[in-house]
């Protein structure tokens, strides 16, 4: 089904009908619509902004494009023979230009071509639920179209920042993550408020581009990770000149006499900077979607919709929620995974192969079962953190008889990778079943180790069998052997 954006002189249709309507054409919405189309159904994407969404233009891609040049430069400096060839610093203008190429200069025409090439309809406008299986879309010029879905409506509307209740913040022209990943100039001084993944990554990126960065964290930096992993990242930040202040609470923020940003802290000190970046979390973007008009706000639990593993919202047989909008795991790759499961479930239910009254079977194509116990995630700082599954504390809180085995990441492959390589690794074992339930790596380039860990955790590979998975020599993957040896195999 093709829904073209008409020229102003062409009258738009006021009514459309299709099999599935997907609100939100980010990476998650695209995957939902694509999987629906693969299942033989018609789908229409509704999007008021750029197709490709946050990940393509303001999050995953531009942030990693900002980080990679500094990491590459540091990698060259970390090896004798190549460090002598390094004669300069990062070219900030070239880094920003390369960043722009990865966002397609904030032009989504290629994404639009993909949508249409897949036979997916596209309506550019802001959608709102108007009834069961019915969406009303308002164009920017005020015109409207009502789209009726024969089978399902999918909410893939993403998430929005949650700024803190900080005195004076509403009067400051500050950066969110969008502004930080699309900025055109390097601020001389930058305050970063928030010690989570985005805050730490962007602190290092802008510090390596030449900014004097102060990172403020209410608790510890990356406090969802074990302490040895956190300490390695903090050491890396310090080496790049980032001043990290943990367990710090801001009291106020204001514009200084010279136009700079001034932030007062709970210890009475005042920081000054040319720019403030606020990165204190995100929440599902569910406002103004018409949920309350349909009584669906009753399905909201702590700001997110309750749903089964196919994304089907509780109390409905037609509404699905996936990705950040679902509020389960706010990671692009998991959102795309949820979208694939939802699309497969919608197609199966349309054929009568799966009922709306029963949840899909675990580990079927219609269920995002991995969300419960096998989520991979990476912090792309230098050094990197890569984790899948549960930490020791999480495993024990879930009632698992868990043990941990950890050691410094020091093998022949890491020594060859860079001089004075510093890393750490941990595996968490379910002692009753003798399988891995969590793995964490910290160190340069450890993200490339993560998928092997994800397979082991997701596949519940027995440790006695995992011992026979021989790591190639000399690679950093030899850490698997060292962990198993220390465990006692």
Keyword list:
489 residues, alpha/beta, FAD/NAD(P)-binding domain, Enolase-like, domain 1, seven-stranded mixed sheet, five-stranded antiparallel sheet, 14 helices, 23 strands, disordered N terminus
Describe the structure.
The chain has 489 residues and is of the alpha/beta class. The protein has 3 domains: 15-56 and 103-160 and 284-371, 3-Layer(bba) Sandwich (FAD/NAD(P)-binding domain), CATH 3.50.50; 169-280, FAD/NAD(P)-binding domain (3-Layer(bba) Sandwich), CATH 3.50.50.60; 383-487, Enolase-like, domain 1 (2-Layer Sandwich), CATH 3.30.390.30. The chain is 28% helix and 24% strand. The chain is built from 14 helices and 23 strands. The protein has helices spanning 27-38, 53-57, 60-77, 92-102, 109-117, 177-182, 197-208, 227-239, 332-350, 392-397, 412-417, 450-458, 463-466, 479-487, and strands spanning 15-23, 43-47, 121-124, 126-131, 134-138, 144-155, 159-161, 189-193, 212-216, 243-245, 250-255, 261-265, 270-273, 275-278, 282-284, 300-301, 304-305, 319-321, 376-379, 384-389, 402-408, 424-430, 435-443. Strands 1, 2, 3, 4, 5, 6 and 18 form a 7-stranded mixed beta sheet that branches. A 5-stranded antiparallel beta sheet has the order 19-20-23-22-21, sandwiched between helices. A hairpin with a 5-residue loop joins strand 11 and strand 12 (261-265). The radius of gyration is 24 Å and the shape is globular. Mean pLDDT is 95; it is low at 1-11. This is NAD(P)/FAD-dependent oxidoreductase. Its cofactor is FAD.
């Amino acid at each position: 089904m093709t829904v073209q954006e008409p020229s102003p002189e062409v009258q738009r249709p006021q009514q459309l009908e299709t099999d599935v309507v997907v609100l939100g054409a980010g990476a998650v919405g695209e995957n939902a619509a694509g999987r629906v189309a693969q299942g033989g159904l018609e789908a229409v994407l509704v999007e008021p902004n750029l197709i490709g969404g946050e990940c393509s233009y303001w999050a995953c891609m531009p942030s990693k494009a900002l980080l990679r040049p500094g990491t590459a430069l540091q990698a060259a400096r970390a090896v004798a023979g190549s460090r002598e060839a390094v004669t300069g610093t990062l070219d900030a203008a070239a880094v920003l230009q390369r960043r722009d190429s990865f966002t397609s200069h904030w032009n989504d025409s290629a994404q639009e071509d993909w949508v249409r090439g897949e036979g997916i309809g596209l309506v550019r406008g802001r959608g709102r639920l108007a009834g069961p299986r019915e969406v009303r879309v308002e164009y920017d010029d005020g015109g409207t179209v009502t789209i009726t879905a024969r089978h399902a409506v999918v909410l893939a509307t993403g998430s929005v920042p949650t700024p803190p209740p900080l005195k004076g913040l509403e009067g400051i022209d500050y950066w969110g993550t969008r502004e930080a990943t699309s900025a055109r100039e390097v601020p001389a001084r930058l305050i970063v408020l928030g010690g989570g993944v985005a805050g730490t990554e962007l602190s290092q990126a802008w510090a390596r581009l030449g900014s004097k960065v102060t990172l403020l964290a209410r608790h510890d930096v990356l406090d969802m990770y074990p302490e040895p992993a956190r300490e390695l990242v903090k050491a890396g930040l310090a080496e790049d000149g980032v001043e990290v202040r943990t367990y710090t609470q801001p009291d106020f923020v204001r514009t200084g006499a010279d136009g700079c940003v001034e932030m007062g802290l709970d210890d009475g000190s005042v920081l000054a900077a040319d720019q403030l970046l606020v990165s204190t979390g995100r929440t599902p973007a569910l406002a103004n979607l018409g949920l309350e008009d349909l009584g669906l706000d009753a399905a909201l639990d702590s700001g997110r919709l309750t749903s089964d593993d196919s994304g089907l919202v509780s109390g409905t047989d037609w509404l699905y929620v996936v990705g950040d909008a679902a509020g389960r795991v706010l990671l692009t790759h998991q959102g795309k995974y949820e979208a694939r499961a939802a699309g497969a479930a919608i197609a199966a239910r349309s054929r009568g192969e799966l009922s709306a009254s029963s949840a899909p079977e675990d580990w079927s194509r219609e269920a995002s079962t991995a969300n419960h116990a096998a989520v991979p995630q990476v912090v792309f700082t230098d050094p990197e953190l890569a984790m899948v599954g549960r930490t020791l504390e999480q495993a024990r809180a879930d009632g698992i008889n868990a043990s941990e085995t950890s050691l410094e990441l020091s093998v022949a492959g890491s020594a060859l990778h860079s001089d004075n390589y510093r890393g750490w690794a941990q595996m968490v074992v379910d002692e009753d079943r003798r399988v891995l339930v969590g793995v964490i790596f910290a160190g340069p380039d450890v993200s490339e180790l993560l998928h092997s860990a994800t397979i082991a955790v997701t596949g519940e590979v027995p440790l006695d069998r995992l011992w026979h998975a021989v790591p190639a020599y000399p690679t950093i993957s030899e850490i698997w052997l060292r962990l198993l040896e220390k465990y006692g195999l």
